[in-house]
Structure prediction request, 692 residues.
Amino acid sequence: MTVPHAEGGSPILELRGVDKSFGAVQVLHGVDLKVYPGKVTALVGDNGAGKSTLIKSIAGIHPIDGGQILFDGQPVSITGPRDSAALGLEVVYQDLALADNLDVVQNMFLGRERKHGIVLDEASMEQAARDTLAKLSVRTLKSVRQLVSSLSGGQRQTVAIAKAVLWESKVVILDEPTAALGVAQTRQVLDLVRRLADTGHAVVFISHNMVDVFEVSDRIAALYLGRMAADVPISTVDRGQVIELITAGRSGDIGLAPAVSEVV
Amino acid sequence: MASNIVPTSDLEPGGAAPSGFEGDRSAGSLGGVVRGYVDRLRGGDLGALPAVLGIVVLTLLFYALRPETFLTPLNITNLIIQAAPITLLAMGLVWILLLGDIDLSAGVVSGVCAAVSAQLLAQQGAPWWVAVLAALVTGAVIGLFTGTLVALIGIPSFVVTLALFLAFQGVTLRVIGQGGTVPIRDETIRGLTNSYIPVGAGWALAAAVIAAYAVLQLNRWRTQRSKGLDSQPLIVVVGRIVLIAVIVLVLTAILNADRALSRAVELQGIPYAIPVVVVLLLVLTFLLGRTTFGRHVYAVGGNSEAARRAGISVTRIRIMVFMLSSSMAAVSGLVAAARLSSVTPGSGGGNTLLYAVGAAVIGGTSLFGGRGRIRDAVLGGLVIAIIDNGLGLLQVSAYLNYIITGGVLLLAASVDALARRRAAAGKS
Prediction:
């Protein structure tokens, strides 16, 4: 599935020297990241490396302290979730922001319902939800009017991802979408991640699972103690190198300068 | 925002085949509907079943114990009038419970609102509509206050409303005056429960309600069918229309029968409180089921974090729900005042709130938030009124009445908790 990519094309989302501190603790140190349309960028790093903080900064939940975020080449300021949504950035959270007591259609349109006057336009929402799921070749749902509480973990993940597609997001950030899923469900979600990129979305895929990462990703970005150790095409590294990047911050001639990786 | 998504569908009418949602198809058969219902029951979603069973069993029980009096048109009319204020209060509480909150002050709020309008009528000689408006505004302002404390300051609703439960009894006492009773003499307000729609008009109204319901249901079914959306089989839709028609017609027949105890006078017709309940049932059901506001209330109750991340202002929704609920308490207070033709410092106290919460929960609204409908208040209100009325006819001692009613609420809450556990267990 993975195709080697040259550095060609311009990134849809680019971070330059992003800093973020919580009080006295600096979590992100001058992080650079490039995210390209049509490609899956895996964001890896050990617990506490700053992955969650980084995506929350991009999503506007924790606005950045320093550095720049460029969207489509233009510097943008993201100070809240609404800013990132308006740009076309959608985050699919690990703990799945779905309401159990609503059905699939209601969840996909939550907060952005279509209306006829004051009445909800159920017909057009149901059709659009159905079309989006069909476009992603999702065939595992029995009905789009099923309550989310009756869905399996993989199906929930699917709905959450389809929601991002429905809103024509340009960048979809997936926070550990395969954690806690079985083998078959992981398969479904990985296929969906690939299709997402193949339909032109820029995908950021956070995972601890190297098998998953190497299966779907085009690029890999490794965070080490709040610094970006590497942001390279996945074809240029092997699994051992990635693990070294995650655990030590450097591997051979890629990664952080020895001084940095040893001092911190 | 929504307009930039162009539906790319060219699904043929009735054909959802391309997306492969075979479940949408199988639900279209009668067997599929029955299976779906059984699955829901098994999954812990009992819906209206406990309330309907309760109505049937309790009616049979009290009919067996008091065959002479329980099922007479006079007693049924009394029972329905008894149910009206409970139901109206519960219709507001359903919203609060949907959020997973509780309003322990709803009963005494109904008392405050009734006291305000009674004093306006008695002291200022205000016309009835001013009094009604004043009660509604009082309710809304109280709801704004409570909602702000709960949603903005972040005090648990249980504590806020427990404190207000005490405080508002003091307010009622202040408005009415020590030991006083304010009689309601206004004919329009008294007429809510003490005057009746003429028999002919009552039948016409019943026919209109049935016709409107049938047209709405069939229209919706036709739209869903023609666009290839999820829909129920026609026979289920027709069955529901027939059921509603039978209930409405039987009730109208009973209420239109002459229920006077002496042959010298005629006493017949639907009390005006009933159309009030029906209209509010329709309006609130529409608001909850068909508007963004209702959808967001469900979302906040189901997963407030998801709602927040979806850009819904949880604070605004919660405050608005408290305002709505307290306004319904005002309506309930007015109907209760009409029924007793007076407002006392004790109005809305005692078991008023317990009855209303009980009604909502028995009707199928969950105390854990996220699940419930407006009709739950009507069904549960009837159950509570049947118990209250039946025990009255049996002349059981007051102590037993309290124990039984409390027990019924506990039973309903247990069913709710067990159903929830079942639903949680079924998921993993």
